[in-house]
Design brief:
- The chain is mainly β.
- The protein is built from 1 helix and 15 strands.
- Strands 1, 4, 5, 6, 7, 8, 9, 10, 11, 12 and 13 form an 11-stranded mixed β-sheet that branches. A two-stranded antiparallel ribbon has the order 2-3.
- Helices cover 2% and strands 54% of the residues.
- The longest helix is centred in the last third of the chain and has 6 residues.
């Protein structure tokens, strides 16, 4: 018999930026507010760092008899970190935020006011870990010189873990910003409205802790990280399947091959991570 090992490691780093507002306009005065200038030059930054490793071990028969076989095992691991953020780099008001009724109740000055380094108005961050394990075997048996049968079986289990983080802001005067600020914060105050956005998405802030039911794959309600103000949710899900193949072939001469084969495949499900949506899991495919 022969023993064969196949291994590999691959990774890539994707780091790019693009024009988000798609406009040549650099600034304009806000009507009716002397001294208030809007700078609509927004930039989208996307960062993705992914690494894959795989290992496969095969043991194959090498005899001259009618029965040939192969058995093996497969291991695959993937780690991915992705970030998307959109800053308003020339808008000084976004140096600090006020926050909606997150962990503190009511609108108030943000405990995480310093946004000067980036002036981000939209951020999503997610990390995903993937583990796939499989074992397989196949036999081929030559009934005669012309007839051969094949039978193969594989078991696969996939596990995925993810953490998604988000923080989003808007100007208080914007009509689509749903929170009315108290007068003491002023007309120009940027609002961290992440809590309000998540509250509009069924199941995101509710779970067994407060009478609801977690969606399949959700580990916890979205919660506010008190170290930086980001909202966080964790996901975990495993999928597994038995797959395989069966077939028969007839080869009466060197120029003719007739066969009948059945095969069943499988692809694991996944998560739609990033902005903490209510629909974030994809079902497996068979």
């Amino acid at each position: 018999m022969d023993v064969k090992y196949i291994g590999g490691k691959r990774g890539y780093l994707y780091d790019t930026q693009s024009d988000y507002d798609n406009s040549p306009m650099e600034s304009y005065p806000y009507p009716g507010e002397p001294g208030f200038t809007i700078y609509p030059t927004y930039v989208t930054y996307t960062y993705l760092d992914t690494d894959w490793t795989s290992h496969e071990l095969n043991i194959t028969s090498t005899n001259d008899g009618p029965l040939q076989w192969i058995v093996g095992a497969y291991v695959y691991d993937e780690d991915s970190a992705q970030e998307l953020h959109i800053p308003a780099p020339f808008q000084p008001e976004f140096d600090t935020f006020v926050t909606d009724n997150g962990a503190f109740g009511g609108v108030q000055a943000s405990p995480w006011p310093d946004n000067r380094a980036t002036r981000d108005i939209y951020v999503t961050q997610d990390t995903i870990g993937v583990k796939s394990r499989a074992a397989f075997a196949q036999i081929d048996y030559a009934i005669t010189d012309a007839w051969k049968t094949t039978l193969g079986l594989r078991y696969t289990k996939d596990t995925k873990d993810a953490e998604e983080r988000t923080r989003q802001a808007c100007f208080a005067y914007a009509t689509w910003c749903p929170v009315n600020l108290p007068p003491e914060f002023g007309f120009r105050a940027p609002l961290d409205w992440t809590r309000s956005i998540l509250g509009m998405r069924p199941g995101v802030l509710t779970g067994p802790d407060n009478g609801g039911v977690y969606e399949d794959g959700v580990v916890n309600n979205a919660y506010q990280d008190m170290s930086d103000g980001y909202w966080v949710r964790n996901l975990h899900k495993s999928w597994d399947a038995w797959t395989g193949t069966a077939g028969v072939e007839w080869k009466p001469n060197a120029d003719t091959l007739t066969y009948l084969r059945y095969s069943r495949g499988y692809k694991a499900g996944g998560f739609n991570t990033g902005a903490i949506q209510e629909f974030r899991r994809r079902s497996p495919k068979r």
